[in-house]
Amino acid sequence: MTVKIISTTPFTDQKPGTSGLRKKVTVFAQDHYAENFIQSTFDSLENFQGKTLVLGGDGRYLNRKVIQSVIKIAAANGFGRILVGKGGITSTPAASNLIRQNKAFGGIILSASHNAGGPQGDFGIKFNISNGGPAPEKLTEAIFEHSKTITQYKIADCADIDIDTLGTHQIGDTVVEIIDPVKDYAALMEGLFDFAAIRNLLQSGFTMRFDAMHAVTGPYATEIFEKRLGAKAGSVFNAVPLEDFGGHHPDPNIVYAHELYEELMSDHAPDFGAASDGDGDRNLIIGKGMYIAPSDSLAVLAANAHLAPAYSKGIAGIARSMPTSCAADRVAEKLKIGMHETPTGWKFFGNLLDTGLVTICGEESAGTGSDHVREKDGLWAVLLWLNILAVRKQSVAEIMHEHWQTYGRNYYSRHDYEEVASDGANALMDALRAKLPALKGTAVQGMVVEAADDFAYHDPVDHSISKHQGIRILFEGGSRLVVRLSGTGTAGATIRIYLERYEADSSKHDLETQSALTSQIAAAAELTEITRYTGREKPSVIT
C-alpha cells in the first residue's frame, strides 16, 4: 500500500455538536473538508492500530464519496479491519450493534439524522466508541482541537472499493469487508421480542403501515415487518433509500410524515402506524385516530417493557433528556426504580447504560432505546409497541388512556424557531439567564414559579459536569418551560421551547394539546421575549 501525505490547512468550523459534525453538503464538498475532520478524529484516538472500525451511513448525498475517503484514510492510519455496510448504508442503531457484536474499536457513521438531504441538504460525520455509543464530550472536544491545527492527512493511494457487493478486499495490511448489516440487526431484534406473538397479531387482521421516508430503515423494516413477521406486502412504504430522501424531510413527526398521519386519522385507518428518520434512530408512533407524543411513548414503553422477553424481569431504571416531559418520572416512581435526567444527546446515556443503572432511555425528539445498543433505535421502539399490543390485545388508544388514568397526563409540546440569527438567539438566552435568580416565587400567567435554573448535569458514573444545558422554569403543580439552543442544525440557530402541563384529572385528559398549554405558551412568550429577539411571530415547527 502506498500512503500519500496530503498537505492541508485547518477549517475553523469543525466543532462537533450533540451528534457529530453536521454542515451543509456544500460545506462538506469543499476540498479537504471531510478528510480533515476524519484525520482529526483519528489523531484524537490512541491504540487503534490493527483493530476493527465499523463504517456506514444513511445513504444521503455524499455518503458514497465520503465512505471511500474514510476507508482509505483509515487504512493509511493503520486500522486492521474495516466493516462496511453494503452500499455504504447502515442505520445508526445497526452500526452500534455491529461495533458491540464485533468488539470493534469504534465506528464512523455518516449521517445528518433527521435533517434534509440532497445536493442542497445536510451531511454529517460522527465517531462512536467501543461501547457502540456516540463519542463523549471529552473526545469531541479533542477532535475539534486537532481540527484547528491540522496540516496534513494520510490517505491510501488505491482504487475505490466496490461497496455494493458482499465480500473482502485488501488494502495493504487492512482488510475491508462489505457486509449485510440488516441480517445482524434483524437477528438482534428477534432475540429481544416475541416475534411469534407479533406474527399472530399481524395474521389476526391487525393492520399496520410503516413509512421509511426513503431513508435507511427501508430494507430493515421490509425484512423484519413483511418477511419475518408477515405484515402484508406494501405495509412498508417509501422503502427505497434515496440520496435526497425523495425530496422530503426525513424527520418522523406529523409535519413531515403527514401522509402517514392523514392515513391514520382517516376513516380507513389501519390499526397502527409508525415511521423512522434518516438514519433510523428516531420513531413516530400513531394509533388509529391517535398520535402518540414521544414523551408519552417513552413512558408507555417503560411501564410495559416487562411484556417483551428481553425485559421480562423488569427494568433497572429510566433515563430521559432534560427537555423530555416528566411522564416517565411517574412510571419510575410507581415501579420504584431509578430515574435520571441528562442533557440532550444520546452520549449522556452511555455511562448509565454501561453500569446497569438504567435499561430504557428516551428523548422528546422521538428517540427511544434500551441497553441492547448504545444509540436510540427507531425500529426497536416500533417492535416494542407491537409486542405490547400483541400481549395486551388492546388498541393504541385504549393503552394510552389507561396509562393516563394510572399516572395522569403530561400535556407537552415543542415549539421550534429554526434558522434564526445566532446573535439574536444568544442574546435571548443571555437575557433569560439573567432573569433566573429573581423568578422563584413570582407569578407568570397565573402560574407560580417554583424553581428556575440553567441545567447542569453531574454524571454519577464518571463525575463529569456538563453546564449550560438549557434553561428550566418549573411551576407549582407540575408545569414546566425549557428553553435551549439546538446542537443539530446546520444554519443559523434553532431555539427550542418545550412546554409542559401536568393534569391528574382524568376528565381533562382529552383536551387539544395546544389549547391545554395556552398558559404555558403565553408564559414562554412573556419570559423569553422571543419576538423581540428574533423577529418571529410564531414557531417554524410545532411538535
What tags apply to this protein structure?
543 residues, 33% helix, isomerase, A-D-PHexomutase_a/b/a-I, globular, EC 5.4.2.2, phosphoglucomutase (alpha-D-glucose-1,6-bisphosphate-dependent), metal-binding
Would you write up a description of this structure?
It is a single chain. The chain is of the alpha/beta class and 543 residues long. Helices cover 33% and strands 26% of the residues. The chain is built from 18 helices and 27 strands. It has a seven-stranded mixed beta sheet, sandwiched between helices. Strands 20-21-24-25-26-19-27 form a seven-stranded antiparallel beta sheet. Strands 11-10-12-13-14 form a five-stranded mixed beta sheet, sandwiched between helices. β22 and β23 (465-466) form a beta hairpin. α2 packs across α5 (137-147), α6 (181-192) crosses α8 (217-228) and α7 crosses α13. The chain starts with a strand and ends with a strand.
* Helix content class: 25-40%
Average predicted confidence as pLDDT: 96
Determine the number of helices (DSSP H or I, runs of at least 4 residues). Answer: 18
Instruction: Catalogue the unreliable spans.
Output: none
Order the strands across the largest sheet as they lie in space. Answer: 2-6-5-3-4-9-8
Category from helices, strands and their pairing: alpha/beta
Extended strand count = 27
Largest sheet: 7 strands, mixed
Q: What is the radius of gyration?
A: 23 Å
The end-to-end span amounts to 51 Å
Principal-axes shape call: globular
Please report which band the strand proportion falls in: under 5%, 5-15%, 15-25%, 25-35%, 35-45% or over 45%: 25-35%
